[in-house]
Amino acid sequence: MNFIRKFYYGDIPEDKAGGNIVSKDSKTDWPLWEVFIRSKQGLDHKHAGSLHAADAQMAIENARDVYTRRMEGESIWVVESKYIIASNPDEAGELYEPAKDKIYRHPTFYNLPDEVNHM
Amino acid sequence: MPVQDLEKIFQQKIDEEIKIEPKDWMPDAYRKTNLRQISQHAHSEVVGMLPEGNWITRAPSLKRKLILLAKVQDEGGHGLYLYSAAETLGMSREEMINDLHSGKAKYSSIFNYPTLTWADIGAIGWLVDGAAIMNQVMLTRTSYGAYARAMVRICKEESFHQRQGFEILLVLSRGSKEQKEMCQDAINRWWWPSLMMFGPKDSESTNSDQSMKWKIKRKSNDELRQNFIDMIAEQIKTLGMKLPDDKLKWNEERKHYDFGEINWDEFWQVVKGNGPCNKQRLDARREAWENGEWVRDAAAAYAKKRAARQKDKAA
Fold first, then answer.
1. What's the predicted TM-score (pTM) here?
2. What is the tens place of the pLDDT at every residue in B171-204?
3. ipTM over cut 0.85
4. Count of structural domains, chain A
5. In Å, how far is A118's CA from the nearest CA of chain B?
6. Do the Cβ atoms of B205 and A88 come within 8 Å?
7. Which is the most buried residue in A107, B114, B219, B280, by most CB within 10 A?
């Protein structure tokens, strides 16, 4: 089935569309790293993106060049992507189910008189 | 779960404006479309460095050199954000780069035009980046999360690009007679190719639009192009220059500018590889890749050696 017949900017038709090769292994690619940036002291490190680098030192230097060109950070964490363990979205239902029926954990569950409403 | 159900859940998420993330189930065609589009976009950023890089050493002052260098570095960064987003869909960086170098993957045709004078750098910032921004602002709301996040980052940086381009032209437009002519000449040459960046007319498509349904795109080519024309037609008044289109005229009824016919033959010729610089651009990319091989190899060897030494120490 040919879904896409309308051509947009950045979506130029190709005889053999670039998107038909799916593979994850490549011998010569440098490993992938996830980058976390703390934008200023007192805040959490936040995921900024990912990049390739041969080793940790290079990952930090590349992260500086790619993600902090405009003073976006003052501390960088890098971790090789293969060490990130992620929850499975297919199991999200069961995983988060226990929290679903516990609305009494939220402050708005409690109706208080106006006098103390800023509690 | 049967595929029909998965597709239904997927479409429901899209309709409810829930972003699709890398590990979520997605139809194969959605994956491929995104992969093709994001990698083409990444290639465009990378190839886009070439016409501008051409002017770094020739920019008229140290300030202009520094600015242009920073802009070109941004484009490299944008390419990287996008390659990373595309990788989350399961294609390796190296494969994408190989596809670019083999000519199999496309990039935006606009970069197959030459940068003949310094004013071209201004016209690229103002018109080419301006057109790209129209598209990219829309894409910050695209349905694939990793793509949308890359776009947010890119849009934050792009407005510097457009402003510096306009400023280059502004200075020229207030300069000597030759400078004014140079400014007008660059606008004349970049105007129509910039309009082509939005792709063929909507009427060229008779099929139902899957990309819209999946919210990969949210505006049509013609809509984006019209927005761009309306914006530029106003901005050019500040420059005191003219857009090279006799038919360009405000239409009070439509509340938009009318404009002349785009040369679609030229568009398809450049897409097919017959533009002024197609060969030159790809050659430059391949050469950079091949000449950089020893650096990549050396870094990998160094990392390996250091890892081995650390292992020895631990043992």
1. 0.89
2. 999 999 999 999 999 999 999 999 999 999 988 8
3. yes
4. 1
5. 33
6. no
7. B219
